[in-house]
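Morning run. Coffee first, then this:
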Amino acid sequence: MPTLVLLVATIAAGMALPASAASQTTCAELDEPVHSGLLAATMHATLCSTAAGQGDAPLQVLVSGGTYNRTYWAGLGLDAYSYTRRANAAGFDTLAVDRIGTGDSSHPLSALVTAGVQADAVHQLITRARTGTLDGHRHSLVALVGHSLGSMAAVIAAARYPGDLGALILTGYSHLISGDQLLTSLTSMYPAALEGRPLDPGYLTTRPGVRAGLFHASDDVDPAVVAADEATKDASSATELPDAVLVGMARATSRSITVPVLLANGGRDSWACTAVDCTSPQALRAAEQPYFSTPLTTYVQPRSGHCLALAADGGEFTDFASQWLTTVLRAGDTRGAS
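And here it is:
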């Protein structure tokens, strides 16, 4: 509640990032070497800077969910549903990453790709962003934003590397998943190699035609989004799921997080809200606050499904997230800290 009160006060006072920070957006494609245990790989990312190359805007690092890649945050190529476009307009730099094994990142043996590996890789990019070795500018204010499987990796990263972040946003996430929904999700997948992709059998994708029902609410999604979702679907390593669930959804992990957390779900999320009450922000907070040691802010978009940012009203969530981040990052501003 204190965070929400501060957010409302900030908005009412007209507090915003400088207009100059959002006056120009330039984007660059990056390929960054990363490593974790035995794995050495390349993580691809799109960095969009809003401050005309000055590097003084807060940075959102965006991690997509299973069978998605960085294009999730760009509306799957549909600008009207682009999280990054709205975040950039609000004065944030964005770094949308392809998880290892997706998009233009390396595709190593699937057995080597875990949620812990993804967390380590994201941490390495955040370290470079903070120290100025990513693009030549120090990004001292960093928030990590996850979706679904990417939220689980984000929880691991935030707990494992507490000095990285000023805030954490989790979407399509909760600590309890119904067994029926887990079974539905697993039976909706098959090896991506069956579609002719040059990947080992441990890389899975969704069967044709199931994504609309799995990831969207039928009356809160543009048919163009559903078509783009099916056309651009990616694959994910099956090895990511076990530690994503066992570690990324564990109470001990999330209670180790020390930064402010925003948990945002669609009220009709068939994954995150089957065993958790998402009928209102208050109900979601009551269910999830015990899993966090810091005060939790919650947001529910009642009509939306699992892919909150791609919903017909997904811009409402994006704008709320930007407003919340403006508040909490300013409140905890540690510019100049290591």
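Confidence is low (pLDDT under 50) at residues 1-22, 334-338. Good start to the day.
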